[in-house]
Amino acid sequence: MRCGDFKTSYAADMAIFETPVSRWVTVAFLVALLTVPAFASSYWLDVLNRIAIAAIAALGLNILTGFTGQISLGNAAFMAVGAYATAALAGKAGLPFAMTIPLSGLVAAAAGMVFGIPSLRLKGLYLAMATLAAHFIVEFTASHWDGMTGGVNGISIPPASLGSFELGDDARLFYLFIPLAAFLTLFARNLFRTRVGKAFVAIRDQDISAEVMGVRVFRYKLLAFGVSSFYVGVAGSLTAYQARIISPENFPISLAIDQLGMVIIGGLGSVQGALFGAAFMTLLPELLRLATGALTGEFPHLTTLFAPLRTGLFGLVIVLFLVFEPDGLAARWRLIKTYWKLYPFSY
């Protein structure tokens, strides 16, 4: 009777998938996911595309905050950098999306590393305020550099296309967003099996001890900002291709707060947690919207209260998670898996 996992080699301990079953379940889930456009409505495809974008951005923030211990409130700014870079590369230079998406991520990574320079001397709240400054600088630039960004009126982005085949609707974008999110998730999972990823974790746990052991703290902190901002810039690029018109209003400071909430609810320092948090925080307002729509007949004024209800529910959920499940949904998922692995000796 199987009642746990017993590893007898270093390779088995370092495997991405702990068991063959988990590997095949993941493959089956991804294959099933790719069939969704055959029967899902445009509304739910839009929701799934937004979950993929949020998951990529939350993964980026989790690499910086959850795995390296650097607090950042500049995610919305770095998403904006990625989106406007896409507008420039695709709209003005005419590059195909296969080049604009990684190049936009690199532009955002460069911006993130610039604003990450204070991380050598700043920590915690002070570093958060330094990254918050990035948001206001990028927002001011996007609003006033009319020739490049279109100012407050925004700028349009041509649809992603493969030759004459345009990825213009939600169903076609789904086949771009989901595989890209899966690839970046796999990359993040592998990152923390490498020397770079372990250096990130050592800095998070105790940066002075890491430096004593030979980890170049400043270099790896900057690299963490670069990798994180690359993910966020890619998410911004995908947002540009989905929205087709971007303006500073697409990247408010509340977007950075939402992504921080995704990381907290999903689980700090967990790749799975970023995915769980992104799905949870994207679906929550949609479920609230459906609930208010269903109750509109009996409570006509309920629709006008949707925005404050969403904000209040968002705050309540974060507080409840911090009190009752501070390790997030990823910890609960691990407990569920452990229960079934040890069954019937789960006590």
TrEMBL record:
Membrane topology, record value: Multi-pass membrane protein
Membrane-crossing residue ranges in chain numbering: 21-41, 47-64, 71-91, 97-117, 124-142, 173-192, 222-241, 261-284, 305-324
PANTHER family for this protein: ABC TRANSPORTER PERMEASE PROTEIN, HIGH-AFFINITY BRANCHED-CHAIN AMINO ACID TRANSPORT SYSTEM PERMEASE
Pfam families in alphabetical order: BPD_transp_2 (PF02653)
Protein name: Branched-chain amino acid ABC transporter permease
Keyword Nucleotide-binding: no
Upper classification of the organism: Bacteria, Pseudomonadati, Myxococcota, Myxococcia, Myxococcales
CC annotations in GO: plasma membrane
Sample GO molecular function, one term: branched-chain amino acid transmembrane transporter activity
Superkingdom assignment: Bacteria
InterPro entries: ABC_transp_permease (IPR001851), LivM-like (IPR043428)
Compartments, as annotated in UniProt: Cell membrane
Alphabetical keyword list: Cell membrane, Membrane, Transmembrane, Transmembrane helix
Keyword Cell membrane applies: yes
